[in-house]
Write a structure and sequence with these properties.
The chain is mainly alpha-helical and about 160 residues long. It has a single domain, classed as TspO/MBR protein (Ferritin, Up-down Bundle), CATH 1.20.1260. Helices cover about 75% and strands about 0% of the residues. It is built from six helices and no strands. α1 runs antiparallel to α2. The longest helix is centred in the middle third of the chain and has 27 residues. The chain is elongated and about 50 Å long.
């Protein structure tokens, strides 16, 4: 049975779904910050720990808005489906990064994941851009932050 969702329902699902991805990642992160992560050598540009929560909350909200714009668009079902699948791949890679880095204590494997995530974000921006320029632009801060996170991940791996 197919149920048509109104735009408000789509917006809520998109925003809550993206924020839930962040919550899943935080389950593996929060307990490791004062313990395992605190004992690691950090890169020179490592920001204070308190900045990560607010930045990620904003980035997940931007992802949710971008997802909503694509989902509610007048693009063909085929184009939307392709865009949503690619978005799902990058979001999955995002969630498992926290599991790999913090849960498994594996900066090396997490670096492989973050490189794949970066490529998936670029692909998402490209396919979203064909449907909604606004949606694509909303993902640019996310790409920039993940680029910075890649630097942090790499240097933590090299130093430790």
């Amino acid at each position: 049975m197919y149920m048509k969702l109104n735009n408000l329902s789509k917006a809520i699902i998109a925003l809550v779904g993206c924020e839930l991805a962040g919550i899943i990642g935080s389950v593996f992160t929060v307990s490791q910050i004062p313990t395992w992560y605190a004992g690691l050598m950090k890169p020179p540009l490592n920001p204070p720990g308190w900045i990560f929560g607010p930045v990620w909350t904003i980035l997940y909200a931007l992802m949710g808005i971008a997802l909503y714009l694509v989902w509610k668009s007048n693009a063909t079902q085929k184009d939307k489906q392709r865009a949503l699948v690619i978005f799902g791949v990058q979001l999955f890679l995002n969630v498992i990064w926290s599991i790999i880095f913090f849960g498994l204590h594996s900066p090396a494997f997490a670096l492989v994941d973050i490189m794949a995530m970066w490529c998936a974000i670029v692909a998402t921006i490209i396919v979203f851009g064909k449907i909604s320029r606004s949606a694509a632009y909303l993902l640019v801060p996310y790409l920039l932050w993940v680029t910075f996170a890649g630097y942090l991940n790499y240097v933590v791996w090299m130093l430790n």
